[in-house]
UniProtKB/TrEMBL annotation:
It comes from Pararhizobium polonicum. The keyword Acyltransferase does not apply. The keyword Magnesium does not apply. One of its GO terms (molecular function) is catalytic activity. It comes from the Bacteria. SUPFAM superfamilies: Adenine nucleotide alpha hydrolases-like. Residues 31-227 form the Phosphoadenosine phosphosulphate reductase domain. Keywords: Plasmid. InterPro entries: PAPS_reduct_dom, Rossmann-like_a/b/a_fold, Sulfate_adenylyltrnsfr_sub2. This is Phosphoadenosine phosphosulphate reductase domain-containing protein.
Amino acid sequence: MPFTATSLSPIDRISTTREITDLLAQGAAVAIGISGGKDSQAAATATFQYLDKIGHRGPRLLIHADLGSVEWADSLPTCERLSAQLGTEFIIVRRKQGGLMDRWESRWRSNVARYENLSTVTLVPCWSTPAMRFCTSELKTSKIHAELKRRFTRLPIISVTGVRRAESTQRARAEIMDHKPGEQIWTWRPILDWSEAEVFASLHAWGIEPHPAYRQFGLSRVSCRFCIMSSLPDLVAAAGQPETHDLYRQMVGLESRSTFAFQGARWLGDIAPHLLRPDMQARLAAAKDKAARRRAAERRLSKQMLYVKGWPTRMLSDGEADLLAEVRAEISTMLGLRAGFLDRASIHTRYAELLEIRANRRTAE
C-alpha cells in the first residue's frame, strides 16, 4: 500500500510505495527526468535527499529529453546547474530525426500523403493534443526509457518524474507508482501530493534558482516555449520573449498550411499577430476560412464512413463513394493537395485493395 515518508520535513516529504522502497533497498538504478521546470527540480533534490537518508547504494543520475527548437534557451543550462549542484551524472537524449517542431512538420507531411493516397478518410491535426501527447510519449518517455535500458541491463530501473496532482484534473488521478508486468522500468512520482508553495520552498531551501521563465517571463509553468497545455496568459507571456519569435512564426506558418489551430479552437497566430508580416496575416486569415469549410465538408460524411481501427471494415455503397469523392475533391482543391481517388470507380478499387490487405494481414496473424 502507498505511504508517505512523514519522517522528512514538510517541504521534503516523499510519497512512495512498498514496492519502490524494496527496489531501492536492492540497489535499483534511479533516474530523475528533468526539464528545467520547478517540479522536476524539486523532485530531483527531494529524491536525492531521500536516497541519502535511506542509504541507497545503487546508481543515480539526471536525464533530460531535448526537444530542440521548442525548448527555452535557459532550460538546458538550468538542468546542467542542477546536475552540478547535486554532483551527479547528467544525460541528454534526443530524437534522431529532429525535435518536436520537426515532428509536427513531418506529421503534417505524412498526413497529407495518407490523405492523397486514401489511406485515411479525413485530415487530422499535425499538433500534439491533450488526448494524444506524442510530444511526451515519443520524444521524452520512449527516448529516456531506451537509454536507461541500454545503460542498466541487469538492474531494475526507477524513472522519477515531478508530476503533481495539483497540476490538473488529469494528473489528480495519477498514482505514486506505475509498472507494467515484465517491464524493467518502474515510474515513480515522489512529489505527487506537494503544493506549488512546497515546490518553491524546497528549491529555496536548497539554494536553487528556478527557471527564469517563472519570475522574469511571467509563466505559470515551464515546458515548451509554446505548449499544447499552455494557458492563454502563458502563451501571451511566451510570445513576449524575443527568443520565441522565430519559432512563433514557424508554428503559425504550419497552422496556415495545415488549417489546424495549435490548440484546437485557439489559433497561435491570434496570440501575437503583430509579430507576423502582412502576408502571413493574410495566409492565416485564409487558413481560418479554409478550416471552417474543411470541417463543413467533412461533416457531410456519415459516421459509418469515418476512420476507425481496422479501417476499412466494408465496401462503400455507390452513394457513399460519390459523396467521399466530392468531399475529397473539395478539400484537395481548397488546400492545394494532389489527392487521387476522386471518383466512384477509383474509390471502390482503392477500398477493394485496402480490404484485401486487411484480410491478408488478419490471415497472417
